[in-house]
Write a structure and sequence with these properties.
- This protein is an all-alpha fold.
- Helices cover 81% and strands 0% of the residues.
- The two termini are 35 Å apart.
């Protein structure tokens, strides 16, 4: 029975994870390194890479701040609406990214609630970088909070209360008492948030407008190249996303190993 279960698990791993990954790099390099590198340094590809990085650089710190504050509030304090806040944090997990993008169109599009006012003041949200950032923040903001809430709840309140009694300010309590015990979970949440931000497709596709060289992130650029039957370039850019996934997996494994060692030493 044990061998059968292992065989089934390995089969699924090979068919649905390993072979697609191999196929991506194989197709990307099929025409040689020169074609591969040319696809990556092409102007539209560089613009999509720069935009993807820009969006992640903005969205991840925002979600880091929100995640820490929300987790601290939920785990350390009792207040009216606590359950509602916890539910709202999980909202992006239950709403389709495409629906999230449509929500921003309804709010900020030309026919949206604020569309007329934005047009009169020459402010562009959708089909521009701000809309892409908003959509990315929405779909990624649960990751940090959801990693920290269980850790902070398990930590309890005794140490923070003791620090407060001894005269520590709120920031000092967080920096010297709370942060050391959640640092690995915080880093893990940031890594997952960054991976999702750079790989997001559905919500960004709705609000971007697919303007080449301006509002196309890497996943959108891959779609356009593939639809144009430019398979070599499409898989070349896709290989960068695949490498991001591998780096994320390696960092995840390292953090879990490091956190396990810290727990062992503490015990």
């Amino acid at each position: 029975m044990k061998r059968l279960i292992l065989a089934i698990a390995l089969t699924f791993f090979v068919l649905f994870l390993f072979l697609p990954l191999v196929a991506v790099f194989s197709e990307a390099l099929r025409k040689g390194w020169l074609v591969y590198l040319a696809a990556l340094v092409e102007s539209d590809a560089l613009a999509s890479i720069q935009l993807t990085i820009l969006v992640a650089v903005i969205a991840v710190p925002l979600n880091l701040v929100f995640g820490v504050i929300a987790a601290w509030a939920i785990a350390k304090f009792d207040f009216r609406g606590k359950r509602l806040l916890t539910t709202l944090i999980d909202l992006p997990f239950s709403v389709s990214p495409v629906v999230a993008g449509l929500i921003f169109l309804l709010l900020f599009g030309a026919q949206g609630w604020f569309g007329t006012w934005l047009f009169e003041h020459d402010i562009k949200i959708v089909f521009a970088v701000p809309g892409i950032v908003l959509a990315t923040v929405f779909v990624t903001f649960p990751f940090v909070a959801r990693e920290l809430i269980p850790l902070m709840e398990a930590q309890g309140r005794d140490e923070e209360e003791a620090a407060t009694v001894l005269g520590a300010s709120g920031f000092q309590t967080f920096r010297r008492v709370t942060l050391p015990s959640i640092q690995w979970g915080l880093l893990y949440g940031v890594i997952l948030c960054n991976a999702r931000a750079m790989g997001e497709f559905g919500a960004v596709s709705v609000v971007s407008g697919h303007i080449r060289g301006a509002t196309n992130t890497m996943p959108l650029h891959v779609e356009i190249l593939y639809n144009e039957y430019n398979f070599a370039a499409a898989f070349a850019v896709a290989s960068l996303l695949a490498m991001l996934a591998l780096v994320t997996l390696a960092l995840k494994t390292f953090i879990e190993w490091r956190a396990g060692r810290v727990e062992t030493v503490d015990d």
